[in-house]
Amino acid sequence: MLFGWLHTYSCKFAAAVPKDSSTDWTTKRPGLLHSLVGLITTLINIYTAQGGHWSVTAKITVIVIGVCTGNMSMLYLVYNHWILEKVKTPRDRAFAQRSHP
């Protein structure tokens, strides 16, 4: 029952998102955004709720989330600057140069 409910409402949400959302940063790179937010949230928690005390759990959490953020950043750079460059047309390159002076 729970999975049916999740499927139903997640499909409705996906249908509500416009297909031309290429300018929305969160839909293009959710892994990078989520790992970065998780890292920032963990650091804020350590310095506010725990008074700057780095427990073993806090260290492990920062290491794991930091590795995820690093991996997602590397994958983004490889994808955006290497893989996509192979499929860009001359029109795409001219548009990119015109958009960014």
Explain briefly what this protein structure is.
79% of the residues lie in helices and 0% in strands. It has helices at 2-16, 25-28, 30-48, 56-87, 90-99.
Description of the structure:
By secondary structure, the chain is mainly α. It has a domain at 30-99. It is 79% helix and 0% strand. It contains five helices and no strands. The chain has helices at 2-16, 25-28, 30-48, 56-87, 90-99. Helix 3 (30-48) runs antiparallel to helix 4. It is elongated and about 55 Å long. The chain starts with a helix and ends with a helix. Residues 9-13 and 20-26 have low confidence and may be disordered.
Approximately how much beta-strand content do the residues carry? under 5%
> Given the helix and strand composition, which structural class is it?
mainly alpha
Helicity, as a percent range: over 70%
* Total strand segments: 0
Radius of gyration over alpha carbons?
Answer: 19 Å
Output the helix-strand order: HHHHH
Mean pLDDT score: 77
SS field, number of helical segments: 5
What's the layout of helices and strands?
Elements: H1 2-16, H2 25-28, H3 30-48, H4 56-87, H5 90-99
Helix pairs in contact: 3-4
